[in-house]
Amino acid sequence: MSDVIAAIATGKQPCAIGVLRLSGDGCVAVAGKVFAPSDGRPIESLPVRKLCLGTVFDVQGRVIDQAQAVVCRAPHSYTGEDTVELQCHGSPAVLSAGLEALLRAGARLALPGEFTKRAFLNGKLDLTAAEAVVDLIDAQTADLAANAAAQLGGSLHRKLHPIYDGLTDLCSHYHAVLDYPDEDIPDFRLADFTEALRGWIAELDELSATCDRGRLLKQGVKIALIGRPNAGKSSLLNALVGFDRAIVTEIPGTTRDTVEEAARFGRVLARITDTAGIRETGDRIEALGVERSRAAAKAADLAIFVCDAATPLDDEDRAAMAAARLAPRSVAVLNKTDLEQRVFRVELPFEHIFAVSAACGTGLAPLCRYIEDTFATDLPCDGSILTNVRQGEAVRRAADALRAATAAIRAGVTPDAVLIELEAAMEAIGELTGRTVREDVTQRIFERFCVGK
């Protein structure tokens, strides 16, 4: 990890400020070949963590920007190594030219997530905090950002660390008694630890129970619009997202595949899928679309049955209603209420029914409130919500191992058999925090990051 890495740490679009970031032993000297402080001092003599004005040069030695540099010395930096950041004007051309000059000066291009990976490997972050960096960057709601920021600050580590340490103490006590029988060490009695194990199981189960809510928080609520052709599903999608995302015509079967778009309902992020109209068809392509519609309903958190209120219900409507009710939650929308009504609420087997005109944009507010009220998290976004499948699986494995240990104690098995389960729980928690994580898992985690972070 001693080589110098460099990357553009900000986006590729023009912006006010763009950052070139370097890390590694010798990065200050590399930066000094590209950046010259205005007061004539060498960059190596700059005070740490203080901005210094200067000029940035390209590979031809031309001045391409006035910028500010900040130097941090190991171990007091984000990565735990010497680091330099050049804060330039946010021109993509300037940043690209500056990066090229840094690479020519001896740095190499950073891999995705390599800065944060170095922070993890150098003990500046545990793995829960490192993964929170990605969540914070990708956050599309304030709730997810707050949860990620708390995890970056160590909230999840603080929950798991006492359990790991308690298990370490328990296992070390057993081995001490076993290895040093002549020493004055208190006897090891498994029954003495039963209450502690139950408490740890309860804490892990509480964490595990947040996984579903975390998925909704991070990925968004999956909403599928289900109905027969020409019921107004595409018009409803366009009305909910606020622009013409789906093609709308009077020709039945216009939508032949699923169309997805994100929308916000207060604090709730949703992924709305417009599906092909459900009906019997001899068109092979449309038939594939109908099958995808049924699959989308099954996979959805909420299915919205869209009904053309100006046309009497028929078998296609009834097939669409049956498909919508495959979802864990389903509601009905009586669409086209600006026309003469031919369908009435009593005909629809749904608890929640909303009358709207998607084409006119009327009647949408109650539906939007329902989505927000149903899916807005009532959990504090204080870092206690697991938004990561890997983390959720590790917590579940740890809790299951502790349950197996308590069952073994009740069955009166020998302590060494119980400790196998306790060590399995420790390994699972260690995978979550990074204390025992394998290199291939680490690599997969940091591949999710963008370059420069």
Proportion of residues in extended strands = 15-25%
Order of helices and strands: EEHEEEEHEHHHHHHEHEEHEHEEHHHH
**SS field, number of helical segments:** 15
Here the CATH topology of the largest domain equals Rossmann fold
Classify the helix fraction into a percent range. Answer: 40-55%
- Fourth-level CATH superfamily of the largest domain: P-loop containing nucleotide triphosphate hydrolases
Most strands sheet: 7 strands, mixed
Could you give the distance between the termini? 16 Å
Low-pLDDT sequence parts: 251-256
**Strand neighbour order, sheet with most strands:** 3-4-5-6-2-1-7
The counted number of beta strands is 13
Based on helices, strands and strand pairing, what is the structural class?
Answer: alpha/beta
Q: In CATH's first tier, which class of the largest domain applies?
A: Alpha Beta
**CATH hierarchy: architecture of the largest domain:** 3-Layer(aba) Sandwich
Q: In one word, what is the shape? A: flat
Estimate nothing, just give the exact number of structural domains.
Answer: 3
Measured on Cα atoms, how large is the radius of gyration? Answer: 29 Å
User: What number is the mean pLDDT?
Assistant: 86
